[in-house]
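Re: Re: ligand-bound prediction request (bumping)

Still looking for help on this. To restate: I need the protein modeled with zinc ion bound, output as structure tokens. Inputs repeated here so nobody has to scroll up.
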Amino acid sequence: MKYIEKLRNSGLRPTKQRLQICDVLFNTDKTFHFTINELEQKIKKQTNSKISLATVYNTVHAFEKKGYLKQIPINSSETYFDTNVTDHHHFYDLKEEKLIDLENSDVGPINILKKINGKKIKSVEVLVKLEE
Ligand SMILES: [Zn+2]
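Reply:
Sorry for the wait, this slipped through. Here it is.
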């Protein structure tokens, strides 16, 4: 099964709980943005079984390290993860506490004027915060 490979590649033992995490994360075409706490709640609801926050936490971080998930830090207290690991922009709705993908066609050219010696820009990802 493809999830078992994903877990092994990430240095994780394929336990029942971790396979449930994979199913929630990867068994969809839709992009999924989530915090660790939201993911824990969703797994509990979908599977009707117990899962420890620590398991969710270490599985998500192992996937992130391996490049299966992308981390999107919103501020010092909130980190979101994204199942879409390509470079892309986001709206962040401050009231709903929700991330929304922006397509590249939704954003015009971004012009970064400052240069750092010896460095070049690898990617530009914009986080646009929305309020009422
Ligand atoms: Zn996204």
